[in-house]
Each structure stands twice: as structure tokens, then as C-alpha cells.
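Moderator note: this is an archived Q&A kept for reference. The question asked for a predicted structure of one protein chain; the sequence and the answer are reproduced below.
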Amino acid sequence: VNDSNAGIYSVTASTTACGTSSAANTTLSVNSLPSAPNVGNNSPVCEGQNLELTASPIAGATYFWTGPNGYSSNLQNPVVSNMSKIKGGTYSVYVTVAGCGTSNTSNSNALVRSMPAAPNTSSNSPVCFGDSLVLNSNNTSVGPNANYAWTGPNNFSANGASVKINSALLTDAGLYLVHI
């Protein structure tokens, strides 16, 4: 059955002795196959973040999502939590509407970025009172455009792969942390 079969159908009954009956009518409606949903996501995401999948609304539709690592969902806009490299890849969805078959499949690719490795740090410690304290960090895995944010004693904060504290005091001694 296809769209060209839709319409009003009439039927009559007849016998040779009594003639033909009045016509009885019935209307045949043919529902089209549902359209494939438009899909998207908030990719790229970093490892540990959530991936938000989106599919366009289709009245009366039931959604069927599949994806990497055995993923499946029947939500229109599911969220894949705690993304990892093995969860990256192609997510696919199709819909069914009122038992009229299935739509074509729509695909959305999800890219998962790796978390940077912990930076390598060093300093010229120990230093003498009044000398310059130099803090260094080098993390080649994050690339040349990385932002380095340092924190330390006495509300110390600075940015850069290498920072310098001129004229170190005893209160400058302690633990310094760098975040990329």
C-alpha cells in the first residue's frame, strides 16, 4: 500500500434474481513513513563531561538511539554521562510513528577530547632569602597554546609556563600548584 492507494472505496452486492444493492463506502488513509529526525550533539566534549544528543521533535514518535560501546536509549534527547574515548563515535537514531514503519536513520558523530596529562613541574628551590624563585611547567601533550595557572602560599597566583617570584621571602615557602 502506498499514497496512491488512499481514497474512498465503494462496494455493492448483486444477485441475478434481485438486482444490485446500494453502495457501501469506506475510506482508506495511508500514512507516510515518518521522516528521519534531524540530529546533533554538543561535541566535542572532554573526557568526563556529558554528551547531549538531540533529535528533532516528530509528533507521536518513538525514538531508538544506538551508539558506541553498546549504547541505546528511547529518549528523544538523551544524555550520555561521563564520556570516555570508547564512548566517542557515531550515534544513530530512527523513529517509528503509530506502527507505520520506521524512518531512515540519522547519524551524529561525537568527538571526545582527552584530558591533558599532569604537567611536569620544577623550580630552582631551595633559594636563599631575597633570591628569585623560578617555577617551571612543561606539558608538551597539550600543545603550544596551553594556559598555565599557578597558585601558592600567600594567595599567590600567576599565569605562564614559567613564572618568577623576585626577592623570595620566608612566607613564599610552600606548595605551588599549576593547572592547565
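Archived answer notes: The chain has no helices and 19 strands.
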